[in-house]
Amino acid sequence: MDDILYTVRAALQPFLQVSSLTDLYNAYKTMPVSYALVGHCLFLAALAPEFKHRFLVHFWMTFLAGFGGGTLTAVLMMDPVRAPIGVLANNSIGVTWFICWWLMVYSPFNIVNRIHSLPPIKMVTKLCVTFMRANLIINRVDLAVTMFPGVIAAPLILGTLAGSGGKLIMDAIRHHWGGLPGPAEASVPTFVWRSAVLAAGGYWAACKYTSLLSSQEAAALVITVLLAHSLLSDMFGDKYTDFTYPVARVAHSLSLVPMPAVEAAPAASKAAKKAAASQQQVKQQQQSAGAAQNGGQKPAVQPQQSNSSATSQAKVVVSEAPAKAASGKNLAVKADSSSISKNGKKQESKKSK
């Protein structure tokens, strides 16, 4: 316990001596990366609990949610020395992730996940995720400017993917497996994508394009803004702390690009609906034309109906004939019996005489 308190004091001591953005950046650099990595892994391993019964899908999906941005940008940069794939270049990432993932998902009695679900602890691990994400965005922008000098798209694209690539990949996997509760990040961008764009673009514009701030000052500003949002969103909710939404509204209004809504249908689906509607209209027209042709052939069909009615009448006559015959036989039998009784009475009267 004393060691933990000493570590916390040592981590907070540089922040008490901050007098400028450069000092703040240096204070951020004194933060133990290994502890931030543990919090980062714990927070992300708790995502997508509905996939726990598919351990392999859950393992890689949550891993890519946390390290997908760095992996994707490393693949695009194609420089294993300056931008290596973390899990392939450093044992600490793979080992830390595996241990944290197992503890969060399959620990006995789910005890680690229950402890992590406590608001103060979850707030700390979320800060670790934000801290790692902000540093990755800054790192990718710096590398893009160095590797692709004079290219504007390189730092903006790579910085944005570094901050939002994990969410993009995770949503794609969850959509494939039918576990995505809402629209994907690529369909309806949220704070994750918008903050990555603003962080990458703001950092590049402030210290690389205009030299308004030094790299350390701009990095300290980006990290501080994202960390402050992480804290405030836990206390007041994302609805009241999303500073990127007004910026997005203004940008969409000025560019005349419609801002995607949650219930908006993609253009491809709208085109498919129109095509289906046109096909239905064609089918209805064909059916109406066929009905008109059948209407002209109705007189030829009527004799068949009359023949069928004649046959039904014949059946009725045939069925009535046996009944009449049977009734006739009954009358004849009654007549014979009455005549026999009369003859018998006459013979008896003669004998008596």
From TrEMBL:
Region (Disordered): 278-353
Compositionally biased region (Polar residues): 302-314
Name of protein: Uncharacterized protein
Taxonomic source organism: Pleodorina starrii
Protein topology in the membrane: Multi-pass membrane protein
GO CC terms of this entry: endomembrane system; membrane
Gene from which this protein is expressed: PLEST011462
Annotated Low complexity bias: 278-298
Bilayer-crossing regions: 30-48, 55-77, 83-104, 141-166
Compartments, record wording: Endomembrane system
Pfam families: TRIC
MF term (GO), any: identical protein binding
Keyword field: Ion channel, Ion transport, Membrane, Potassium, Potassium channel, Potassium transport, Transmembrane, Transmembrane helix, Transport
Primary site of residence: membrane
Family: Belongs to the TMEM38 family.
Alphabetical list of InterPro entries matching this protein: TRIC_channel
